[in-house]
């Protein structure tokens, strides 16, 4: 969300928030990897980021998506559920 608001890192406030949240996210991901495998944790985090970006794009920026986009996101969500069921 802040990546889009930063307009290519040209706006200072949103740009600082981009770096802040990247740092926090990487730190939390490192903690999660302490208790799980690299591949599963990384895929889970990337999947969550993608779904959140998809939702924020629609809710905050009024971006429109096709039925195939929605189907693709539903497949990602199903994959995240399977990853979690496998003992993340």
Describe this structure in words.
- This protein folds into 2 domains: 1-35; 36-88.
- Helix content is 78%, strand content 0%.
- It has 4 helices and no strands.
- The protein has helices spanning 2-5, 12-33, 38-61, 67-85.
- The radius of gyration is 15 Å and the shape is flat.
Based on the model shown, name its key terms.
88 residues, flat, mainly alpha, 78% helix, 2 domains, 4 helices
Query: What is the number of helices?
Result: 4
Q: CA-to-CA gap between the ends? A: 26 Å
Oligomer kind = single chain
User: What's the main sheet like?
Assistant: none
What is the rounded Rg?
15 Å
- Please indicate the percent range of residues in DSSP E strands (runs of 2 or more): under 5%
Helix content: over 70%
The overall pLDDT average reads 89
Described by the principal axes of the CA atoms, the overall outline is: flat
What structural class is derived from the secondary structure elements? mainly alpha
Topology diagram in text:
Elements: H1 2-5, H2 12-33, H3 38-61, H4 67-85
Helix pairs in contact: 3-4
Task: Give a concise summary.
This protein has 88 residues and is mostly helical.
């Amino acid at each position: 969300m802040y990546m889009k608001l930063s307009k290519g890192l040209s706006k200072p406030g949103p740009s600082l928030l981009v770096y802040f949240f990247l740092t926090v996210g990487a730190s939390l991901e490192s903690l999660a990897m302490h208790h799980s495998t690299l591949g599963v944790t990384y895929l889970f985090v990337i999947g969550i980021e993608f779904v959140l970006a998809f939702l924020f794009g629609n809710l905050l920026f009024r971006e429109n998506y096709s039925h195939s986009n929605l189907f693709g996101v539903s497949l990602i969500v199903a994959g995240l559920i399977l990853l979690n069921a496998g003992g993340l």
